[in-house]
Design brief:
about 70% helix; mainly alpha; elongated
Length: about 325
């Protein structure tokens, strides 16, 4: 996952919460190694997560992304932090040694009870980051790891410990809400999987619906416009076919229904069947399917073709919608 592998914290080689002085010292050290054409992977870049090449330009670019509080927090959501030195440091040492299994095992044991506490909150954040990173690699997607990572991250972002996490990352003057942090995380995650193509929007929404978190309804409503736009496009396509060739009205109506039914099911799960957005678009589809049936019937009623069966099938589908 590029949000983790190309994370500015990783490029600089620091953990979330590093002080400005620590960051400056690390950047200076990195540039010295780069100019001497020597590798420097003994920091918190964790090469096991995937290869990446540092240049003076990439380090400067990463450092620029760690200047503003909003950018720092967005990047921190997809990186690691030391919230419990007793347990986190051994896990980080394991990652430095390319031992992913040991790191995951340390954090997994801490969250085994299912309860999120100040002592294990960093385990939720760090394990979720690790799982999300491992879940998407090139064209390969591990849906189980992705969903588990998403679940752990949202539980962490819903807990009051997010306040302490924010305090580690940003200045006291930076104001944001739990909802805004959750939406920022989900929007960034969706943008990545949308570009990657391994997880569809319907799958992603399916994972989201299973979770309980503050910004859930806001997120679902914001993304409901995507399937609505696709459905409206299909309605217009069916209408164009119907008006251009009445004999193909039945085909247009059936294709419309088959094409958008899953989108409507997705919308109903996002918004509920009583939501005005859902009922409005569902009615629009029903109207077009019905009109396809009517036009097909009128076109063939005085011909040798019996339009009754196909027209009635469309009427029933429209009524169902």
């Amino acid at each position: 996952m590029k949000l983790v592998r190309n994370n500015p914290y990783r490029t600089v080689g620091i953990l979330v919460g590093a002080t400005a002085r620590e960051q400056e010292r690390q950047i200076k050290r990195l540039k010295q190694y780069i100019e001497a054409e020597q590798d420097h992977n003994h920091d918190y870049s964790f090469p096991v997560l995937g290869d990446f090449r540092r240049t003076v330009e990439s380090v400067n670019e990463a450092a620029a992304k760690l200047n503003l509080d909003k950018d720092k927090l967005d990047a921190a959501l997809f990186w690691f932090y030391n919230g419990n030195p007793i347990t986190d440091e051994p896990a980080f040492d394991a990652l430095k040694d390319s031992d992913v299994q040991t790191a995951a095992s340390i954090w997994s044991k801490l969250i085994k009870t299912g309860d999120l506490t100040p002592k294990n909150s960093s385990a939720f954040q760090n394990l979720s980051t690790l799982l999300l990173c491992l879940s998407i690699n090139g064209s390969s997607v591990n849906a189980i790891q992705f969903e588990e990572g998403l679940n752990l991250k949202l539980r962490f972002l819903e807990d009051e410990s997010i306040k302490d996490f924010k305090a580690k990352v940003t200045d006291d003057t930076f104001k944001t809400t739990k909802n805004e942090i959750q939406l920022s995380f989900l929007n960034a995650l969706h943008n990545e999987i949308d570009k990657h193509g391994g997880i569809s929007l319907s799958q992603f929404i399916g994972y989201i619906i299973k979770q309980n978190f503050s910004a859930k309804n806001d997120f679902l409503r914001s993304y409901s416009q995507l399937p609505i736009q696709r459905i409206e496009k299909e309605i217009e396509a069916a209408k164009s076919i119907r008006k251009a060739n009445k004999a193909r009205s039945a085909v247009a109506g059936n294709n419309l229904y088959k094409t958008v039914i899953n989108e409507l099911i997705l919308l109903s799960s996002m918004l509920g069947t009583k939501d005005l957005k859902y009922t409005s678009i569902s009615d629009k589809v029903a109207d077009e399917v019905l009109q396809c049936g009517i036009d097909y019937f009128l076109h063939h009623r005085d011909s040798e073709t019996d339009p009754g069966e196909l027209s009635m099938d469309l009427f029933k589908k429209a009524n169902k919608l």
